[in-house]
Amino acid sequence: QADLAESGGGSVQAGGSLRLSCAASGIAYSRSCMAWFRQAPGKEREGVAAIDSDGTSNYAESVKGRFTISKDYAKNILYLQMSSLKSEDTAMYYCAAGDWGQGIQVNVSS
After folding, report:
1. Do the beta carbons of residue 60 and residue 37 sit within 8 Å?
2. Residue 40 CB: number of other CB atoms within 10 A?
C-alpha cells in the first residue's frame, strides 16, 4: 500500500509559481506511474499530469506549457512545478500512485 504525502501548497497571486512535492513510500517508485490530480469546489476530480516509469510525461491541455511533472529517484519524491498560475488552478491537489495522498490546497487569487 502506497503512502503518499503532499506538501508545498498555499496561496499565490495569479501569474505566480508554486512547487508541489509528494513524498512516496511503500511503492516500487522507479517502476511506478505517478500522477497529480486536482479537484475544485463543486467539480469532479481531474487529471493534471502524469509521469510513466520511463519518464514520459503527459499533461492536461489546461496546464500544458505551465506545469511540469518530475521525479527525484534518489529521494522518492514526485514534483509538480506550477508557473503562470491562474485563478482557475485553485483546487485541492492530490498525488496518486495506485493510492491517493491526503491532498493539499492551492489558492490562486486574481
Report:
1. no
2. 14
- Separation of alpha carbons 89 and 51, rounded Å: 20
Tell which residue, 21, 18, 32, 24, has the closest CA to residue 107: 18
7 and 104 Cβ atoms separated by less than 8 Å: yes
Q: Is residue 16 helix, strand or coil? A: coil
SS3 at position 38: strand
Residues 69-100 as b/e (b if ≥16 CB within 10 A, e otherwise) read: bebeeeebbbbbebeebeeebbbbbbbbbeee
For the stretch 75-107, pLDDT in tens is 899 999 999 999 999 999 999 998 999 999 999
In this structure, what DSSP letter does residue 100 have? B
Residue count of the chain? 110
- For residue 25, the model assigns a pLDDT of 85
